Amino acid sequence: MALLAAPGTASAAGASVCQREPRDAVAQMCADQNERMYGMFVTFVYPDVTYGGLAPTAGTVDFYNETQFFTDDLMTKSFAFGLNMRYIGTETDYQPYWLDYTNGYNFQKIGGYTTASDKLNHTFMAIPSCGNCTTWDIYYDFVKVGVTGNQPNPMSFHLMTGWDLTDIPGEVGLSTTSNRVRFLDGNNQFRQFNTVDTSVRAPDGYCEPGADPMYCWHWDTNVTSTADGRVVSWDTSKPIVRPAVASPRTAIAAPPAQPEDDTEIEALVARAQRLVDEQYAHR
Q1: Cα 130 from Cα 18, distance rounded (Å)
Q2: What is the DSSP letter of 18?
Q3: How far apart are the first and last CA of the chain?
Q4: pTM summary value
């Protein structure tokens, strides 16, 4: 499967997760940089979903929009948060969560689930619990929902954000999501990544004539950036794609998404920055 690649990552930061072969149908952006990261802030609108013919008989299906923060250079320890969309045969449940890979796998639900997108920007944030701490406070929509276990280091050089689908990826369509992700720098300021420090992976599934529709899939992806090369968002949508009897393959367009309000996004970032400033005012 072909991997899409942006400009190479910073060499001192080590290899990127995006250089690894994905196990599932993924659409992910990785940030690997020399500058230390001490936390992260992400916002996105829950997408709408459509299903092809396999969904009613496929049982439970999970797909995740997740942002992961790695705390060792080998990327074996981390924590993450995001949205789990689960098809249960009769509906799709939208469940925010956070998880901790300090010792094994610890999955924590955040509140209850809904059965449709509310079309609102939801925010996820992780900031250090204290100066030079190796634990992070986890916030969802600016409410503290948990604290990670002790990680190997009080900072990171590696982050990954985006979608991971399992089970029936060829028969699922998702409207556009724009993951707007920022990192907390050594001056406790949220900043956008530089595009030269990012790479992406969104490999296509097998869509030759006669292929299994479950393994025929495709993502539409885009790294939106400013004129000076700062990452604004990681944009992804997913049409339903089916194997072609003859070239080209057939596709059902992803459901449309509502345009996001940049003014609202900037207000959310400012609110996150105020929370950080208040927490570290004594430092």
Answers
A1: 31
A2: G
A3: 49
A4: 0.90
Query: Of 23, 24, 25, 28, whose CA–CA distance to 4 is shortest?
Result: 28
Place of tokens 């208040």: 278
Higher-scoring residue by pLDDT: 162, 208: 162
Across the chain, mean pLDDT equals: 88
| Pair 239, 251: CB distance under 8 Å | yes
Q: What is the pLDDT of residues 203-212, one digit of tens each?
A: 999 888 888 8
pLDDT digits (tens, 9 = 90+) for 74-88: 898 999 999 999 988
Q: What is the largest CA-CA distance in the chain?
A: 66
Contact 87, 55 (CB under 8 A): yes
Taking the CA atoms of 116, 258, 230 and 125 in sequence, report the sign of the dihedral they define. Answer: negative
Let me know: does 6 contact 168? Beta carbons within 8 Å. Answer: no
CA distances (Å), origin 275, targets 69, 120, 137, 278, 282: 20, 20, 12, 5, 13
